Amino acid sequence: MPSLNAHANTPDSSVAVPSQDAVYQLRIYEIFETNKVAFHQRFRDHAMRIMARHGFDIIALWEAKTHQRTEFVYVIRWPDADTMRQGWKNLMADQEWSAIKEKSAAEHGAMVGEIQEKVMALTDYSLIPAGLPRP
User: Fold this and answer.
1) Does residue 2 sit within a domain?
2) Rounded to two decimals, what is the model's pTM?
3) What pLDDT score does 8 carry?
4) In terms of domain of life, where is this protein from (predicted)?
């Protein structure tokens, strides 16, 4: 699993991933029951719009629960790993996104705990859901 820059929550540029082929990025955020409604509102109403502005192609989003925690899980399709890294860099530098995160943290406290990430490439024999382009 690629490591993340702990402060920016962005993929570590030292991680080796294919740079020529489309990649899918799996992101798993620990979210908290005490403010998960606010988290979902922020992601739906702001993050998705701002991410789209920076080239994020979000395929699907889920909420998962274990007996230990609640997770927000989503998959992003990128044309290549370099575009993925640049997209995250641009998002973390986005002043509107920074202001929204700061305001929501002041109102609701920390909204995300641990973040896990995997950068994935489809196998040549993978079944693909209708409408999902093959890299």
Assistant:
1) no
2) 0.80
3) 43
4) Bacteria
Number of domains the chain contains: 1
Residues listed for the chain = 135
Residue 129: pLDDT band by 50, 70, 90 thresholds? low
Q: 23-62 pLDDT, tens per residue?
A: 999 999 999 999 999 999 999 999 999 999 999 999 999 9
Q: Which residues contact 121 (CB under 8 A, 6 or more apart)?
A: 17, 18, 21, 22, 23, 24, 135
Distance CA 47, CA 91 (A): 9
More confident residue, 132 or 127: 127
What amino acid is encoded at 69 in this protein? R
**Range of 115's domain?**
20-120
Cα 94 to Cα 88: distance, rounded to the nearest angstrom: 10
d(CA 9, CA 92): 8
The pair of structure tokens assigned to 24 is: 């899918």
CATH number for the domain that contains residue 95: 3.30.70.100
With respect to residue 34, please indicate whether it lies within any of the assigned structural domains.
Answer: yes
The share of the chain scoring above pLDDT 70, in percent, equals 79
